[in-house]
Amino acid sequence: MEKDTVISHYIIDSQEDEIKRISNELHEGVGQTLYSVFTGLEYLEGSMQEPAMKSYTAEIREQLSKTIQEIRLLSLELHPPSLASSGITAALKSYLKLYTSTYGIITELTSAGNERRLLEKQNIMLYRVCQEALGNIAKYADANLVHMKLNWEAEKVIIEIKDFGKGFDIHTGLAKRSGLAAMCERMELIGGTCLITSAIGNGTLITLSLPY
Amino acid sequence: MENQMILQMLHDLLVDVPCEFGAIAIQIPKGSDVKWKHAAGNLNDKYKRITLRYGKGIAGRVISTGTPIHLDRFPDNIIGRDLEYPIMLAEKLISAYAVPILLNGSAKGVLLVGRRVKKPFQLHEQKAVRDYTTKLEKVVFSHD
Ligand SMILES: Nc1ncnc2c1ncn2[C@@H]1O[C@H](COP(=O)(O)OP(=O)(O)O)[C@@H](O)[C@H]1O
Ligand SMILES: [Mg+2]
């Protein structure tokens, strides 16, 4: 491996380890503790007689419940707890559900062929690249609809992310910022490829390919 | 119909302030998620599918803090990432002002107004929006 590649792997791996640690801490640590507090409040509320105190407690309980919910979603965005056990398709499915309710953009996911178990690193890199592509769509595409297709072929998996938005000029897009370039670099680091095609007025298609 | 009345109030607001977009997010029924229920001047219907994230973005933060928020030139000078501001992205807003709608003293809704050009909301415009919520508080929760 080239020296630069070794360094890129190292930086990404340590970042991902850190993100995973924070995500787990939120989900298992802080989230669980808050849940115990929530149960305690519920108990207190039940034994309260005074209506004003009771409704004040109910108000706090509701805030707490929303905080717990937001922590769960944050953890899903950071590093889905079930990525290793349930695989990339399931992880993307829950992410898309959250994406639609966050941005109001309708998503459709289809998966064809037999899903293979991927390495943890491949899973997380695919997840990140899809997140970047979806984030770009929410920010720039002006699209109401996204189609995501997973094709589990004999030798490789192909993931297509198609938006039906306004499209852009890839050369100016690549020159402007580094999100698109980083998507391709991430795919290359795990031995895959990333192809971006876009036409003004005709939406954008991102095609990821990863050999097993 | 209350909905018709609220929509008319939003349209009046757009003319009075003036601004290009106005929307109301509320929690109905009590205890559920907060969603955008009414909008005027919208570019698309994304707002209908959006559920506010507690404490995030302009509207989510208005709910969690109970105080008004002014963004003068999105995405500059914001707290957090631009991706945490779905309604700004969906409606291509640059300047926006959002205020809580109160039910029994706590923030159970948001009134948001926005512009698609960089034109911050002046103090008297902000006051006009806040005055509107007093009227709205009487009607938005009535079909609870
Ligand atoms: N799906 C898309 N639809 C329209 N334009 C896009 C899309 N994805 C990227 N772009 C354009 O490409 C540019 C670069 O994107 P990116 O490298 O991800 O940078 P960033 O997201 O940090 O602005 C964006 O500023 C935008 O103009
Ligand atoms: Mg980007």
UniProtKB/TrEMBL annotation, chain A:
Domain Signal transduction histidine kinase subgroup 3 dimerisation and phosphoacceptor positions: 20-83
Highest taxon above the source species: Bacteria
Domain Histidine kinase/HSP90-like ATPase stretches: 124-211
EC number, UniProt record: 2.7.13.3
InterPro entries reported for this sequence: HATPase_C_sf, HATPase_dom, Sensor_HK_TwoCompSys, Sig_transdc_His_kin_sub3_dim/P
One of the Pfam families matching this protein, by short name: HisKA_3
The protein, known as: histidine kinase
Top-level enzyme category: transferase
